[in-house]
Design brief:
alpha/beta; TIM Barrel; eight-stranded parallel barrel; 19 helices; S-adenosyl-L-methionine; ThiC
């Protein structure tokens, strides 16, 4: 098998290209151009046969990812599969399995079998769990241990993988010299740094990056270059360590493209609102337009229980400024493993942020959706308003909970409905959609 990029370079037809073009209301030529110049990726493993093709990148609708996965405290496979179902129903475009407890292979294979969404993983999580079981310590894992997990997950059909290959001794020195309030909050980043210091060696994923590229090319796995030193609080945003790692990631993007491997870049994190736009532009410049995948960014540190909102605020600005892929944040971020309801609320919040940005970005169909809603509101067409809602079930429940029988308006305005008054006294026509 060959990668999407290799097939396109040979002039072969690629079904995923046409599927994404139809979904995005763009021409196939536009998608091909984006794939070949690296500004668009279509995460699809050669071994995935039940996948709904999804594109991420320049000119495309901003996508939303939902994280699910077990922990030691909650190693419940069925609960995570229920979260998968909830995420899909809420409109997530992709999912990541971040499991660290229970039957890791079983949950991943079940997700791959049951879901039509692209699946991402962080292979070092499983490598760390296996190392702890085998050696009693995460930092005693070997490079072969890590690459064995990477290849196994690739064979299983994982579509994209987060790899923290940008942490080097130079980036780590920048972190140590400047200092931080929250140090390292990325779990994969922490594992990597711990391994480097304990073994007094360079980051194995950086040092053996060509080995990683060989596996990615073999299975057409999209690499998601993780930001292991992303800021975990506002005070640490935009520091030397973050930017030093970004410089390395820019180099790794170039090497992946030369190897015909699809690649995107991950970004912060926690960040003051006024720094977001500059960070997005800097990533695009340093990484030559590679698709940017951001967590949030969260614009304040003081809203536990509401971090889906802090992330949506930052996510809108990030996407307006160039981010292509938003990783959702749930209300339970910083507090515990999310519930199914948290997953739903996190997906919806990120979808709102993504759509708000798409209107500004001029994505085809974005503004038209809002125009249709405006017409439905003017017509007092409640069924159409509910149908057009980003969360129809919630909209319908809210309407029915405080609905008075046979009243055309709502219980907020009643007979004083602005739409009705304008139609009656100014002679404007209340049209249906």
């Amino acid at each position: 098998m060959s990668t999407i990029i290799e097939r396109l370079k040979k002039g072969q037809s690629v079904a995923e290209i046409d599927a994404v073009a139809i979904e995005e209301n763009l021409s196939s030529d536009e998608i091909v151009a984006g794939i070949l110049d690296g500004t668009i990726v279509i995460p699809k493993n050669v071994n995935r046969h039940n996948l709904r093709a999804m594109g991420v990148g320049k000119g495309l609708r901003t996508k939303v990812n939902a994280n699910i996965g077990t922990s030691d405290e909650y190693p419940l496979v069925e609960e995570e599969l229920h979260k998968l179902e909830i995420a899909e129903k809420a409109g997530a475009d992709a999912v990541m399995d971040l499991s660290t407890g229970g039957p890791l292979v079983d949950i991943r294979t079940q997700i791959l079998a049951k879901s039509v969404l692209p699946l991402g993983t962080v292979p070092i999580y499983q490598a760390a769990v296996l190392a702890k079981d085998s050696y009693g310590s995460i930092v005693d894992m070997t490079p072969d241990d890590v690459f064995r997990v990477i290849e196994t997950q690739a064979k299983e059909g994982v579509d994209f993988m987060t790899v923290h290959a940008g942490i080097t001794w130079k980036t780590l020195n920048a972190l140590q010299q400047q200092g931080r309030v929250a140090d390292i909050v990325s779990r994969g980043g922490a594992f990597t740094v711990g391994w480097m210091i304990h073994n007094d060696k360079e980051n194995l994923l950086y040092e053996q990056y060509d080995r990683l590229l060989e596996i990615a090319r073999k299975y057409d796995v999209t690499l998601s270059l993780g930001d292991g030193l992303r800021p975990g609080c506002l005070a640490d945003a935009s520091d030397r360590a973050q930017f030093q790692e970004l410089l390395v990631l820019g180099e790794l993007v170039d090497r992946a493209r030369k190897a015909d491997v699809q690649v995107m870049v991950e970004g912060p994190g926690h960040m003051p609102f006024d720094q977001i736009a500059a960070n997005m532009r800097l990533e695009k410049e340093i990484c030559n337009g590679a698709p940017f995948y951001v967590l949030g960014p969260l614009v304040t540190d003081v809203a536990p229980g509401y971090d889906h909102i802090t992330a949506a605020i930052g996510g809108t600005m990030a996407a307006v400024s160039g981010a292509d892929f938003l990783c959702y944040v749930t209300p339970r971020e910083h507090l515990g493993l999310p519930t199914a309801q948290d997953v739903h609320d996190g997906v919806i919040a990120s979808r709102i942020a993504a759509h708000a940005a798409d209107i500004v970005k001029g994505i085809k169909g974005a503004a038209e959706w809002d125009l249709s809603m405006a017409k439905a509101r003017k017509a007092l067409d409640w069924n159409e308003q509910i149908r057009l809602s980003i969360d129809p079930a919630k909209a319908e429940a809210a309407r029915n909970e405080r609905k008075i029988k046979d009243v055309e308006g709502c219980t907020m305005c009643g007979d004083f409905c602005a739409m009705k008054v304008v139609a009656q006294y100014l002679g404007t026509k209340v049209e249906s959609c």
